[in-house]
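Following up on my earlier thread - several people asked me to post the actual chain instead of describing it. Fair enough. Here it is, all 519 residues.
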Amino acid sequence: MKVWLLHADRDSEQEPAQPCDADTLAEDLELGTLVDAMADGDPFLAATGRRILLSSRTDPDELRYRQAAVQDAIAQPTTVERLYRLASQTLEQRRRIWRSLLHKPETILPWALDTLEVYLDTFEELAPVLDQADRFRSPAFTQLFDRLTGELEQGYLSRVGTISHMLRMRSGVLFSATLGRGHTGSDYLLHQPRDWPARARTAASPRRKTYSFSIPDRDEAGERALSAMRDRALSTVAAVVSQVDEHLCLFFTTLRRELAFYLGTVRLHRRLTALGQPTCFPVVHTVNDRSWSARQLYDPCLALHQDKAVAGNDLHADHRALVLVTGANRGGKSTFLRGLGVAQLMTQCGMFAPAEELEISICPGIATHYRLGENRSRTRGKLDEELHRLSRIVEHAEPGALLLCNESLAATNEREAALIGSELIAALVERGIRIVFVTHFFELANKLTHQHGSGVLCLRAERRADGERTFRMTEGEPSPTSFGQDLYARFFGGESADPAWSETGRPGSAVVWNGSGRS
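Reply from S.P.:
Thanks for posting it. Predicted structure:
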């Protein structure tokens, strides 16, 4: 039986492909918070959710296939959770069945029959779940229910149970064989037990004269010979029942793994909805369309961490190769950047998106380049380390990939950052890589703005006249100041700079030289 809940034409991979710096990407975007909300304490859900989030898909049709299934799962959460529990319990019960270390037919067959009975019990419990099939609309779930209904036709489970009971052969193994070359047995054939009810036999046969013998209690050679003959008679049946176990175990393993993604998505949707945060199913475009617009896009990780609703932002970056974000310190620039990255990952695994509306092009890869913290074990200087990581990203990035930079090149001064950054970003944009660059370097931002013209979108973290941060990004020229004096006044007392002067960066404004740039 096939599951095909994540893909329209195949089952999911056990270990899907991950980006080259998956751990760094997960850390920078704080995916742990998102995964914890999906798992709700279930380690398997957490592991599965993380793997699928990081294994972005690039086929729009495949993503729409998953989106339809996610909508079904959100509408019918009880049925999805029940299916997941049944699959999990079945695999756990199978795991607990003791299996002999002797790989012989006479030990394999009883074990395989025990596991078969576990599956039969599960299929019995599936019957009321299949009655809910008419509530689902997506191809993924409707086709799964159709396959299960077709396989579990009326009377099928009863017939399989009868055969399983017969194969227990509690009164002994009855088989026949012909005498082959060298007086060895051949053409072994297993028969129904003599004590099996007459109605279960294929045909009644008249009693015929038979020959028999008994093996003495201490005849070890005779016991071994008889055991070898019994194994040959049971080998075919044992192999068939073992293959049935393999097939059903693979089915329930895949079912559990693929349902785990949908159940995790349901739990995440429930959490965000309870916080009053909007969600939507994004409109997905191909790489070449270069679509990227959103309404009230937010960072779900921040909302989950703070356990309350957070501000969203609009984005209109269609056909823009570069998005520059500048403005006030602690104004929400990094949060905005993280929200963009998380939304891209959620979209490219078929989930809903953290926004009221989202129209987005898929990308063949997502990478992050964040400012490094202090690390005494580092063997390179900070700038050397930053450039080394950028070099690795460039090596693996394909045209259409998305690069999220947060205070990159902060390890050097403003003039060097402008020289290095402008050349590097120009090369990446020419290669077709889409970049979101958060920086406090005005010279770099100003140079990039003039260098790329209409191909760049400039956003600024909004700051009101009294210094209050609204955590919203507005379109505007790069800000020459990050209003660091606001933070100074907050922690050490005093007044913020006069906003009328601060916006210009002229004498009297809150521009403080710190050796590496303005703050």
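The longest strand covers residues 456-463. That should answer part of your original question.
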